[in-house]
Design goal:
The complex is a heterodimer of chains A (402) and B (193). Chain A has 402 residues and is an all-alpha fold. Chain A has 16 helices and no strands. Chain B has helices at 6-27, 31-51, 55-80, 92-115, 133-141, 154-175, 188-192, and strands spanning 144-145, 150-151. The chains are: A mainly alpha (402), B mainly alpha (193). At the A-B interface, helix 2, helix 4, helix 5, helix 6 and helix 7 of A face helix 2, helix 3, helix 5 and helix 6 of B.
Chain lengths: 402, 193
Amino acid sequence: MAEFFTTNLIEYVSLSEAWATPLGYILAAMIHIALLLNVVAVGALGFIWLERKVAGRIQDRLGPTRVGGRFGWLQTLADGLKLITKEDLMPAAADPFLFRVAPYVAFCASFAAYLALPFATGWVGQHLNVAVFFILAVLGIEVFGVILAGYGSASKWSLFGAMREAAQVVSYEVPLGLCVIVPVMIAGTMDLIAIGDMQAGMVWNWFIFHDPFTFITFWVFFTCATASVNRAPFDLAEAESELVAGFHTEYSGLRWSFFFMAEYGSMFLVSVLAAILFFGGWNGPIPITEIIGLNETNGALAGYVGNLLGMTNLIIKASLGVTVMIWVRWSFPRLRIDQVITTCLKYCTPIAAMMFLGAALWILYLPGGLWATLRLSDPLGHTREAAPDQQAAAMPADGERE
Amino acid sequence: MDQINWHTFFFLLSALGACTFALMVVFTSNIVRMAFFLVLSLTSTAGLFFLAGADFVGAMQIMIYVGGTMVLLVFGVMLTAQERFVSLKTSGGTWSLAALAGGALLAVLLQTAFSVDDWKAGDTAQAGQSQTTATRIGLGLLGARFDEGTSGYLLPFEIVSIHLLVVLIGAAYLARAKRRAKPSADNPADRSD
């Protein structure tokens, strides 16, 4: 993309190459950043509206109805305007630097993880060979913003909330990592684009239907993902009934809204991750784009339209995942901290470990059936030897427990 | 100048970040701020790994150092942050000792770094190119290095695995709820836990 801008700048704007090259790079970077930032920000706007509507319906209310027409779809924008105009308060005893920097840390971590997240074949901010691993690692930094907020606020409620969140997120990273290893092991790569492309074709190519173990793994993954993005019933860090508002008790206005952008950003992120790892990513239940020939071989335009449809497909799947999270939030009561940790250590981790072993044995003795013939790419051409990569992927989980 | 060398630019940016934040760790007296600057410094180091095309090592740096160590550090900091430890005052003697040790290490590392001729070549053609390192690392750890035709690192890998397992079991043993078979009333030490 940078080369495209550079050549066009030289050709049409008649800039010299010394100026066109850096300008081309900066323009390309800006476009990537603007697109990703819009995914996070507009996504948050949409999902907050959705959350309010779904919550209303579940509680036999209507939810927002007035702002922006019949369905109140501009309600979030109105809320945002209100938040911008609110006074920016800071407790007198707070650590000013940490208090101010914490919302940005949380938001930056959530946003940085989008850099490696593909939306269709080749549509990705930065194509990383270890995208899954990178996303999990960066998402783990988000908790640091919460801890800084809790400490910097100089408030007991905030500190309790932050410590709960820290304990919870650190615990749930272990089963989450184990669950992610299963599709990585089947695909033989940590490259999300390759993982998505391997599930092309009909619905039974999706990794969730690969074998019984992956089917169970998905549900464990979804539970752990809900916990790791701090959503109800795992939202102890902001338990209103006990801790006022947890780690963001002392925040108001725009700073507070950064935490919420980070939360909705991470929700959408783990949903996209679930869609790519288990639900075929941009490949639909029925490969319509393949059947009518919307791919690169029939020209760039066909490839573009095919990718656009694939991205829509992925976003619909991920939005369904977010909707399920919202549904769960308004249906289940909040767990206690000991129940949260019990769920993680006594249920999720052992189940994930068993599923990992089961899936490893499955691909060793029954390498795929339908699967092996449809396999698109393999890093080293070893069909049966997914083991090396699986070991490499298993390492982070070992490291975490250190 | 026909083209800005972006790799040099981003290298300098990351290196400057790593060094600046490392210095800020040293010169800050608040312990939580130190932890924050340490995270920034380690993240900048991860940026250097990404720049060198070592995606896996870079992500590993974030996962282990930034994620794991930092959260553990913050746990420790908060649980021990009594009033008198919130702000650390370092005495002059400690400063000079630390400066001596740090300076000696810096001198040795600089001497080493500039004595390797291969590293002076300045070949940045490959920089920033994402390479398939994860598969090679995985195979190497399982004892096969196809790229160099040598044997890999199966034994060290197994030793580290067993070591980690021992540490895990040890941690679980230390952290378990202590139940005495017969809580004796005459021994006050038994009642205290």
